[in-house]
Fold this sequence. Notes:
The chain is of the alpha+beta class. The chain contains 19 helices and seven strands.
Amino acid sequence: MSVEKAAPITTAAALAPEGVSARHYWGLLLAVFLFSLVGIYLRPLDGLSALWPANALLLGLFLRLPRLATPLGWCVAATGYVLADLLTGNSLSMALFLNSTNLLGVAIALAVCGRSPIAEQRLKGPGGLSTLFLAIVAASLVAGIVGGGLLWLLLERPLGLSSTNWVASELLSYIIFLPCILSAPNPRAWRWRERRVVRRKRIPLALLFVSLLASVFIGGPGALAFPVIALLACALSYGMFATSLLTLAASLWTLIVTASGNILSIADAGDTYALLSIRLGVASIALAPIVVACVMTAREHSLKALRHMAEHDTLTDLLNRRTFHQRAQEKLSQLKGQEKSVAILMIDLDHFKNINDTYGHAAGDEVLRITAKRLRKTIRSDDLCARVGGEEFLVLIAECTPELLEHITQRLHKAIGQDILLPNTQQSLNITASIGATLSDLASPHLEDMVLQADQALYSAKEKGRNRTNFASMF
């Protein structure tokens, strides 16, 4: 008797790619729906919305979560768009036509971005920003032409004016919303890092606040440019995400002040071309601090990389001798007067020259890299480890006891002694090490004396047959 297997039930979770759950799709639906409602709320009667942030949100989410940009993800986003329109009284046909244009614009932007790692870079360089700007310009132009054509066919709106307004609205929304979405870090990480920077450097923030108030009390067409200097100061002082948030806030404030008649006169407030000029002006002003912040972020990463290269050994990525001595002195200064012991270990790989002579220097380099990784895993995270010679390593262990020192040296011998499989020859090597260790319980130990003591203990360990630890106390 044969038993027919039941067909699996297809659900959103089953259709989701690996790493994306139904929770992500529900979040996408809710986000697109809410941001669409914001755009509809800003839409004047029988007119185009001054801002449409839903497209920028969708593009940002798809760039940051590429696995969400599946057919199911597009359908979920389309549902969010249409639901918002239907809830606010639009007809189904109009909602489908107009939101198809929104989705087309986002698709064009994704196609232009291609495989460029814009989201992974978090706008850390001007190269990614130029690609992104090209993408949003292309998306705005295509959406404006198609959307303006639909308005002309369905509602008999002027083709040129409708298309131009659509392009300006899309471009403004992308420029002020998308950098915030792409540069947004982990909330907990931003809380402790960028917020401390903003608190410490309050002058640019105060300058921005004053300039925004001045745009209200002084008014006039020139008020549009009041926040420029303050925003550039923010870009020079804060990170990419903080600058993006402040630029978004300043842009929204400018649009609100414009709508209230402070920048445009009452007679010009209903002038479509004047409003179009304001939107393009706000978009241009918002772009300046974003570009500066992007360049500053790239500069900071370059300086960080240079500092790392200057402080670390290029082969093993451990501290170099100079940096080890600097940080060790800092640790000893912190322990001064606390009566806490400090240990110094000098480690030398036994018969390392034979490895270079037998298997080549590439094999020797691989042994050094693997040994360095094992050292880092064996010692504590707040201890110091450096490569100070060809096959010599130096370790500082703070707040150490004789029992702990003996335990750590045993673990080091065990970790270093594990066989190493050379990748090219598949040859297995057994490495041993000699260790010289010294322990000081002085309130203010001298680093040079301790290193010399550990070096002498290492020499003694080698004389006694290698693959052992020789302890030398220093009081």
